[in-house]
Amino acid sequence: MTEVKQYPFIEGKNLTLCAPNLDNINLYASWDNHPDARKYARNLFPATPESFKKFLEEGQGRTPREIGFEIWHKADNKPIGFIGFNFINWADRMGNIGLNIGDPAYWRKDLGLEATYLILEYAFNELNLVKITADMYEMNAPSWKICEKLGMKRELVYMKQAYVKGKYVDSYQYCLFKEDWKNLRKKFEFK
Amino acid sequence: MENKVKQTFIKGENIELWAPMVENVELYAKWVNSPTGRMYSRVPTPQRISELKKLLEPKPEFLVQKEIYLEIYHKKDEKPIGIVGLVDIDWLNRKAKISINIGESEYWGKGIAGEALKLLFDYAFEDLNLHKLYAQIYTPNHQLIRVFEKLKLAPEATLKEEIYVDGKYYDAEIYCVYKKEWLKGNN
User: Would you list the domain boundaries of chain A?
Assistant: First the structure.
């Protein structure tokens, strides 16, 4: 493997969030395709490097609808996942975030928590948003536990929203408001 | 003009703001190219109909529009008389530049611009959730400066010798209006 370059954009304690890199599209696709990871996100269809290439090549200007970051592990010096906004509604000042620690070797180490903390800081302090939402399925306990640790509220339950392994499961929507984050953020030391 | 479908987007007292229509593009071309009108709105090069049509084409991302134009429709006379809009919309910083052109000069000095801007400001602050609007006008444009002052816009900055008009440099004034002050003044 050739040397992988990082383009740091946000500096955390154990992680940096980096601008996505066209050289890594194979890696990005492999994270979405990983059997253990994709069962949580429910990626039903194979992801191709070309789809990431297309996404990265379509410039969206200074107020894009979608923003993605590569999650870079500082100590191990390599990218381990992806985090970003699935969509941003600039008029209502809302964003919906998505996370994938694509390499299961890095699960259960609070790295998803740190990456989400960093994206919330970015959302409120730099993008000037006031409400952040996140959606996940009920079996995706690692994700909704991150939301609860950060102080996000489960504001919606979509009942029997997805068909997973022979049965219907609920989907949750968590949310967080800028005015609540001012206090909640003090608990963490990721910067 | 019979069987015309109304495209009313915002209702006012003497005017309405309508969605712009491609069938009126020749009218828009007349307004932006008019020697007196373009002097104030600073249109130094001729505007072709094909270019103006492009402005009206549907945008792929309607939530992140960079500019919004509305036709000023005179209710009593039942015809479009100008264009008002927001350009350079910056959604992150929540600001936009004001643009106005009363294309039909017989409607000048009748309070139309003031009413159109008032409707535009309500829309920008109440619907679009913007924080600040600004206009850049060059100092001899006294009519528009008076309209701005009536609407309680404040001059915020002067850009020295910013604009070259008719053989000479003029200063430009930046006038601003903020959401909190506008909504307070109207409620």
Answer: 8-187
Q: Which domains does chain B have, with CATH numbers?
A: 8-131 (3.40.630.30)
Q: B-chain residues within 8 Å CB-CB of A128? A: 92-94
> pLDDT by residue (tens digit) across A31-89?
988 888 887 888 777 888 888 888 888 766 677 888 999 999 999 999 999 999 999 99
A62/B93 Cβ within 8 A: no
**Residues B97, B86: Cα–Cα separation, whole Å:** 6
CA distance A47 to A49: 7
DSSP-based three-state secondary structure for A44 = coil
How is chain B split among helix, strand and coil, in percent rounded to 5? 35, 35, 30
Taking a contact as any Cβ pair under 8 Å apart, which residues of chain A between 103 and 132 contact chain B?
Answer: 127-128
- Note the pLDDT of residue A165: 79
pLDDT digits (tens, 9 = 90+) for B46-57: 888 888 888 888
Considering the domain A8-187 in this protein, what is its CATH number?
3.40.630.30
Q: What residues in B contact A92, CB-CB < 8 Å? A: 129
To the nearest whole percent, how much of chain B has pLDDT over 70?
95
- Name every chain B residue with its beta carbon within 8 A of the beta carbon of A62: 90, 92
pTM for the whole structure? 0.81
- Strand ranges inside A101-152, DSSP E: 131-137
Structure tokens at A184: 């909640």
Q: Is A92's CB within 8 Å of B94's CB?
A: no
The pLDDT value given to residue B142: 86
Mutation for testing the B interface, residue in A60, A90, A93 having most B CBs under 10 Å: A90
